[in-house]
Structures are given as C-alpha cells and as structure tokens.
Amino acid sequence: MTFDVGARLRQIRQAAGLSQRELASRAGVTHGLISLIEQNKNSPSVASLRKILEGIPMTMAQFFEEDRPVRNKVFFAPDELVDLTSRLHKASGTRPRGKLTLRQVGDAHAHNLQILHESYEPGADTGLTMLVHDSHEGGVVLSGELEVTVGDEVRVLKAGDAYLFDSRIPHRFRNVGKSRCTVVSACTPPYL
Question: Max alpha carbon distance in the chain (Å)?
C-alpha cells in the first residue's frame, strides 16, 4: 500500500479550514501546485512539501504519521523508527538510485528534539532549493561521504566528520561518493 500524498494534503488543508488559494498564499507557492499535488498529478520534492506544510503549520512527521496513540517509549528497534521519506519516494515513483531516507527516533515534538538516522545513496541530494528552517542541527557521518553546504561554505565530510550549524542559514546535503552515506543527526526544535 502506498501513501496517498494528495489525499492526505487535501484532508489536512480542509481540516485547517483553508482553501487551496489560502494555503498557497501562506506557503508562498502557486495555487496550481497545491491543486496538482492534491490530484496526484505532481509529486512534490521534500523541500516543496515542507514549504507547503509550513503554511498549515505542520511538520513532515505529523503529515506522514499514522493516527496512533502517543507512547512514551525509551528504546526503539530499527523497525520502530518513523520513516519520513520512503513513503514520499514511493508516492512520487522515484528510482532507488539516488534515494534519500530519513528515519526518526520516537516522538520528536514530545521531546523538542528530532534525532534522525539518514541514508543517502550515491547521487542523493536534498535538492537544488536550499533548506531553511528555524532550528539548530548537527550530525556525524558514520560511513561514506556527504557534501554539506551551509551558506557559502561547502565541505565534503567523511566517516567520523561532523557538522553543527544554525538551520536558518540556507543548507543542502548531497552524497558525492560512490557508496551509501549514513548519518545520525539531531535538530532542535524538530523541523520535519
């Protein structure tokens, strides 16, 4: 079963009492983009969907999270991490090559801390549109290589290298290596 991004966006928009035009205006996107996404005629990038959800406001985790009771868990098995991107990739029909996955530990908003296990296949990229959000984030590269751009600074990080920055500075992540890159990151307050 695939995640229906269009139906979910329409449901959330209507529950918020917003027209497509009102949401588009709040999010700084075109009305046509909202309409196409809701009809599943356009598969949004992670950056575009995040921008649209900011107009509601809602995080990516809330958008993709199934309705289930909040549990105050302390320990998590790998299959209990919340997958924030694989459903989006399935819905958009992207190919596995260049795939990016972000898996969240527990309820980020209950703790005001988002911890992610990130995996970037060769060529994976957060997109040409730089990410910007009101948080601070940091991470450690566990394997592979990751090009991190923060403002005008660009560096290729390898296993053991780390980053920490103010997320209000435009930033981007890209696997420029020939093997999968794995990162563990944290962000506060949560942004997905």
Answer: 47
Predicted TM-score of the model (pTM): 0.63
Q: Which residue has the higher pLDDT, 47 or 97?
A: 47
Residue matched to tokens 């990151």:
185
DSSP-assigned letters across all residues of 108-122: HHHHT-EEEEEEE-T
Contact 104, 116 (CB under 8 A): yes
The domains found in the chain, sorted by start residue, are: 5-58 (1.10.260.40), 78-188 (2.60.120.10)
Q: How far are the Cα atoms of 32, 94, 99, 118, 182 from residue 103, in angstroms, in the given order?
A: 30, 18, 13, 6, 11
Decide: 78 and 55 in contact? Cβ < 8 Å.
no
CA distance 115 to 190: 9
pLDDT digit string (tens) for 114-170?
999 999 999 998 888 888 888 999 999 999 999 999 999 999 999 999 999 999 999
Token pair for 62: 């809330």
Q: What band does 46 get if pLDDT is binned at 50, 70 and 90?
A: confident
Instruction: Work out the percent of the chain whose per-residue pLDDT is above 90.
Output: 45
In the chain the first and final C-alpha atoms are separated, in Å, by 23
